[in-house]
């Protein structure tokens, strides 16, 4: 089985990277998510985009469709199977997270309102990303608010900009320069994505509009390119489990449940799991693994699909006993046949101090 895991762990067999979105309030984080998620009703669930617990999964087919307009030369490579985007922008558990090698966020989108430039929470987010060494891109959102902007829905940014009046192009240049300078003052070198010659050294600005959809193809292309180039190693399948508690919720008929993001590995019904609790470690057995019904079946009375087994990366709801005091941001471990439950309990609880220091400083 180890050989099998080794064979599977290659750069040709990558798991889906996990993407979070953060930034100052009102910059358009929610709106951007809505816009990328937007499914074409006539095509059913466009390219198989699925709503998950706390996340949305974009299989590569959907991303291929959505990036076609900026991939006319067909040179873009699609090696990762898809992209898992965490739905709750600026979610507390992201800020709560232990800093030690968490995979809840492989890549981030930092959203900045192009009309406002840097704002207090932009700087907070910047520091957070830097502390975690999380690669990120900056969406310069709301370009449609540049005076006299003529939208071309869902277009690539460069083409849209080229078709604007000189005065619009100048305003854009002006605002870009100001924001670039402000980033520099905060110790960060950034460049417009198509002028960025060194993605390792410079962060890319990608201008977007969550209203017109312009620049969103560029943003998706950049996310995919960046994860494939910079993170192939991290995205190989591991036999090891990586799982994080996102939220603790009481659900009618299920009792207290936890929403988790499974970043790597496999979870099975019946697994013995261990996580941090307010009154000490929690050890319990998975009673049910649940994901939402596919969109088209939303009318069905039962809200969830049950799974015997789920594989990374995805968002899933876990029903089990004794979850009342589980802590968002905690790691979740599975007790394997050769593991000592108490050792694992000690291991997760060693994160606790960090969890709380993060809570109190955020
Ligand atoms: P969040 O707090 O970052 O999640 O921001 P929201 O997504 O809730 O957006 C805040 C406000 O900005 C809402 O009124 C949105 O309609 C508006 N907004 C978001 N994106 C854009 C955009 O690209 N263009 C324009 N004109 N307005 C936007």
What level of helicity do the residues show? 25-40%
Shape summary: elongated
Sheet with most strands: strand arrangement: 2-3-4-1-5-6-8-7
Describe the main β-sheet briefly.
8 strands, mixed
N to C succession of SSEs: HEHEEHEHEHEHHEEHEEEEEEEEEEHH
Beta-strand share of residues:
25-35%
Alpha carbon gap, first and last residue:
42 Å
Report the average pLDDT across residues.
Answer: 85
Q: pLDDT below 50 for ≥5 consecutive residues: which ranges?
A: 40-44, 358-362
Q: What ligand molecules are bound, each kind once?
A: guanosine-5'-diphosphate
**Whole-angstrom Rg:** 21 Å
The number of helical runs is 10
Tell me the structural class.
alpha/beta
Total number of beta strands: 18
Subcellular location: Cytoplasm
Protein name: Eukaryotic translation initiation factor 5B
Family: Belongs to the TRAFAC class translation factor GTPase superfamily. Classic translation factor GTPase family. IF-2 subfamily.
Structure in words:
The protein has about 350 residues and is an alpha/beta fold. It has helices spanning about 1-10, 30-35, 60-65, 90-95, 120-130, 155-160, 165-185, 215-230, 340-350, 350-360, and strands at about 20-25, 50, 55-60, 80-85, 105-115, 135-140, 190, 205, 240-250, 255-265, 265-270, 270-275, 280-285, 290, 305, 310, 315-320, 330-335. The protein contains ten helices and 18 strands. The longest helix is centred in the middle third of the chain and has 20 residues, at about 165-185. The model is unreliable at about 40-45 and about 360 (pLDDT under 50).
């Amino acid at each position: 089985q180890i050989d099998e895991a080794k064979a599977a762990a290659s750069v040709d067999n990558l798991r889906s990277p996990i993407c979070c979105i953060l930034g100052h309030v009102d910059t358009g984080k929610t709106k951007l998510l809505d816009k990328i998620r937007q499914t074409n009703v006539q095509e059913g669930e466009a390219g198989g985009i699925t709503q998950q617990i706390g996340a949305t999964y974009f299989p590569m087919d959907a991303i291929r469709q959505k990036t076609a307009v900026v991939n006319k030369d067909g040179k873009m490579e699609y090696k990762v199977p898809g992209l898992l985007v965490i739905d709750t922008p600026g979610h507390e558990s992201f800020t709560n997270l232990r800093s030690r090698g968490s995979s809840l966020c492989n890549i981030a989108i930092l959203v900045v309102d192009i009309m406002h430039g840097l704002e207090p929470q932009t700087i907070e987010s910047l520091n957070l990303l830097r502390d975690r060494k999380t690669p990120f891109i900056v969406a310069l959102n709301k370009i449609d608010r540049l005076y006299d902007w003529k939208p071309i829905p869902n277009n690539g940014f460069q083409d849209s900009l080229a078709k604007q009046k000189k005065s619009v192009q100048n305003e854009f240049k002006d605002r870009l320069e100001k924001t670039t300078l402000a980033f520099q003052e905060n110790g960060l070198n950034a460049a417009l994505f198509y002028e960025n010659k060194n993605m390792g050294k410079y962060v890319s600005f990608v201008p977007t509009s969550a209203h017109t959809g312009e620049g969103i193809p560029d943003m998706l292309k950049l996310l995919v390119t960046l994860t494939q180039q910079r993170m192939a190693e991290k995205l190989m399948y591991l036999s090891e489990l990586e799982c994080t508690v996102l939220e603790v919720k009481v659900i009618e008929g299920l009792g207290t449940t936890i929403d988790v993001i499974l970043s790597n590995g496999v979870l099975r019904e019946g697994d013995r799991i261990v996580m941090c609790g307010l009154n000490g470690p929690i050890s319990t057995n998975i009673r049910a693994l649940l994901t939402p019904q596919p969109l088209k079946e939303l009318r069905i009375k039962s809200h969830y699909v049950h799974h015997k087994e789920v594989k990374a990366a995805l968002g899933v709801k876990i029903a089990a006993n004794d979850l009342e005091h589980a802590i968002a941001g905690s790691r979740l471990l599975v007790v394997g046949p050769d593991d000592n439950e108490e050792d694992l309990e000690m291991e997760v609880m060693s994160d606790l101090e960090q969890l709380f220091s993060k809570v109190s400083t955020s």
